[in-house]
Amino acid sequence: MDLLLSEEQRMLRESAARLLAGAGGAKRLRRLRESGDGFDRGVLREMAAEGWLGVLVPADRGGLGLGMTEAALLLEQAGRTLAPEPVGASMMAAAALAACEGNDALLARAVSGDALVVPAVDAVDGAGEVRAARIAGGATVLEGSRLGVPAAAAADSMLVATSGPDGPVLCLVEAGAKGLRIETRRTVDGASFGDVAFDGVAAAPLAARQNRGFGRPGSLRDGLLVAVSAELLGAMDAALEMTLKYLRTREQFGRPLGAFQALQHRAVDDFTRIVGTRSLLFRVAGGEGEIAPAMAAALKAHASESALRVTKSTIQMHGAIAFTDEHDAGLHLKRAMTLSAWLGNAAAQRERYAEAML
Questions:
Q1: pTM, 2 dp
Q2: Which pLDDT score, from 0 to 100, does residue 20 have?
Q3: What is the rounded average pLDDT of the residues 104-118?
Q4: What is the mean predicted confidence (pLDDT) over 94-114?
Q5: Backbone dihedral angles phi then psi of residue 248, each to the nearest 5 degrees
């Protein structure tokens, strides 16, 4: 599928590709995985300097004032290069802050990359729950847990999706707050996620500016589903591109591997999955109005299943060499495994789609 992009969108995609290629790709991922935060704060600030973290923030609040199509173009490139930075999570957290009243100082720091703000939203399968309660003096405290929060240990603030007396609401929690406990765990690709427990943690409820946008928990989660689908698209597309190059150059029985019909058919099947994912992604991202929950679920289900199938297929087409940790094909599979499970796997998303369509 060839996207009909504007000149601005093409320039945005090309600049993202150049920045990420210069950052180091798979070599950098191997160096950073399972060490420290698992990503480079300096690279995240470079992304911020290019306006990435404020791509969904209105221009009058310090952002680029663009839309989900532009965000998806950036995140597809991040997926292609296996960038370990939580750019999608940071991007959506900034968009949520911008959609709420106040917090101008924190929003400016989030857009510039000086503060890392990450979302702690509920997964589709319902793992973890956080409740907000008001105590004497009008203060709000949180009880419960959120599982699988990206870069939780490195975050300066979290946007926590809670259920309060007046319904679902986003609450701002500062790092190091009393009663906040974070258990860090590494995913198969070396990324750092946190299981976060709230034991009477003081929080600041955020008031959405209007009854739409990413200032509400459900809308923020749907935006994250689109963001992670864009990264999955990039990861599987780069994996197939790498494999096609291998099939053209590697010979067996005096012929290039790509001359064998069975491998041709497998490659076509993988290509079809990628094209389908790209088509659905930019249909959802480019739609008018809010992202429909059913469409966000359908997209994440399709992207999760396709990314796993394509990256597993590329491992097989490379043969035994791809099973070694030194080969980049395995890194794409591991990234697909992590992102396909985050916020609910394909099966969970299909259930959510069915519920939304009833």
A1: 0.95
A2: 94
A3: 97
A4: 95
A5: -80, -25
